Amino acid sequence: MQSQRTDIASHPQLHSAVLPCGNRLPGALLFLFLIVLAAPSCAGAQQLRINNSTSIDRTEEVVELPLSRVAGHLGFSVAQMQSLVATDTATEQRIPSQLYSSRPGGDPDTLLLLLLVKLPAKGTMNVAFHLDPALQPQESLVFGRAIAERKDDFAWENKVAAYRIYGPALEATGEISSGIDVWSKRIPNFVVNSFYQRDHEAAVTHNSALSYHNDNGIGLDSYDVGSSRGCGGTAVWADGKLDVSKNYTVAKILATGPIRFEFEVSYAPWPAGGRMVRETKRITLDAGSHLNKIVSTYMFDGGSSIDLEAGIAIHEGGVTTLPVGNSIASVWDTPQKPSGGRIATGLISLPTQHATTMTAANHALMLFKRHSGEAFIYFAGSGWSKADMPTQEDWNRYLLRFEEFREHPVAVTWIKR
Q1: CA dist., res. 365 & res. 387, Å (int)
Q2: How far apart are CA 128 and CA 85, in angstroms?
Q3: Predicted confidence (pLDDT) per residue in 95-145, tens digit
Q4: How far apart are alpha carbons 265 and 278 in whole angstroms?
């Protein structure tokens, strides 16, 4: 397994540029970043105004701000940005934040300041910034890691949803699946480490009651991913069937929080649609969101396009909803244990992705026609009837609102204090 990004070259004067989330800026990028941000701004102290133009409450949402603009408005250097604190002026409460690079190794314009905000319908909030050299660590609201002790699983979560994919050690046992698995949990909590610990204890003590396949009041694994696409896995769609990869081969963590977790995962080449293809996915999970943002890129020979898909499995008894248009697919699905309630899964694709939605091969599918190297972007995630999605209507409403928020992002302006 590969872990964090490439470290900064071993120069003492660069060590202060380690991002608060534990990620580091590559040396060349850091040099450019210092040039952009070192010059003081004459703009004076300013505040950020964030406006929700929709008539729906935005309960938790990550706002992305170009870091160079933030630094320019505030007149801070890169070293000072490490101790930046954002505060809601109305409540004087600290706003969770994170420094983040949208393209590791890219140019300074890809560096962002992330803010986790809550806005009422038609509401506005003002954000003030100050420096605190004795900055206290923020609570982490996202988590993920490679689970080497469980056959190279890779699992990630926030306080409302948890997911995992399967790695090479599991494939070596003959169990092959490149779908995305779902863990159901009550909120707010993290379960990845405790679930694996429970399962280890179950194996050691031969006490199956300890297994994470049983609900102990926190949640459980009762989703049957098998060889399906699970909750958002991908494939080549050819001759009316899904041509799928084997388990992932390499996973690389790109951001560790506190409000955004991101990693990249690669799959070995496999034959699909009459040619050899290979895939790389970038998966991003923000605090408070049930849905992962997934960017999938397939590489293959030839100049013609192929049909690629993202899918959610439909188990026996599952109810599928495809709202008008091609942007949302929803399944009110059945768990392995009837006592596990209902597991809700969903896909969303924005209009710019030109997806086609359909049901086939026991899946709700979104099809994307792409040439080699052309990425397709979609959102995939889950909810649970025993947590905050008690009914199918609640889940479908969540998906519709999520789509509306993506199409109508918050507006941000800078104002004089």
Answers
A1: 26
A2: 8
A3: 999 999 987 665 656 789 999 999 999 999 999 999 998 888 999 999 999
A4: 11
- Whole-angstrom Cα distance, residue 64 to residue 363? 33
- % helix, strand, coil for the chain, step of 5: 20, 40, 40
Is there a contact between 243 and 271 (Cβ–Cβ < 8 Å)?
A: yes
Residue range 171-178: mean pLDDT, rounded: 96
Strand order in the sheet with 343-348: 250-256, 260-272, 275-286, 291-300, 376-384, 343-348, 328-333, 319-321
Name the residue type at position 140. S
Is the CB of residue 27 less than 8 Å from the CB of residue 45? no
The pLDDT, as a whole number, for residue 127 is 98
* Residues near 82 by beta carbon (within 8 Å), at least 6 away in sequence: 16, 17, 18, 19, 20, 99, 135
User: What's 96's DSSP letter?
Assistant: P
CA within 13 Å, CB half, 38: 7
215-238 pLDDT tens trace? 989 999 999 999 999 999 999 999
Reduced to 3 states (helix: H, G, I; strand: E, B; else coil), residue 194 is helix
**Amino acid letter at 174?**
G
**Contact yes or no for 387/344 (Cβ under 8 A):** no
Residue with tokens 């070995």: 268
What is the per-residue DSSP string for 6-55?
PPPPS-GGGGGGB-TTS-B--HHHHHHHHHHHHSPPSS-SEEEEEE--SS
* pLDDT tens, residue by residue, 272-300: 989 999 999 999 999 999 999 999 999 99
- Which candidate, 181, 186, 188, places its Cα nearest to that of 215? 186
Helix (H) or strand (E) holding 314: none
Helices (H), 27-148: 27-38, 67-74, 78-81
> Taking Cα atoms as reference points, which of 180, 184, 183, 213 lies closest to residue 198?
213
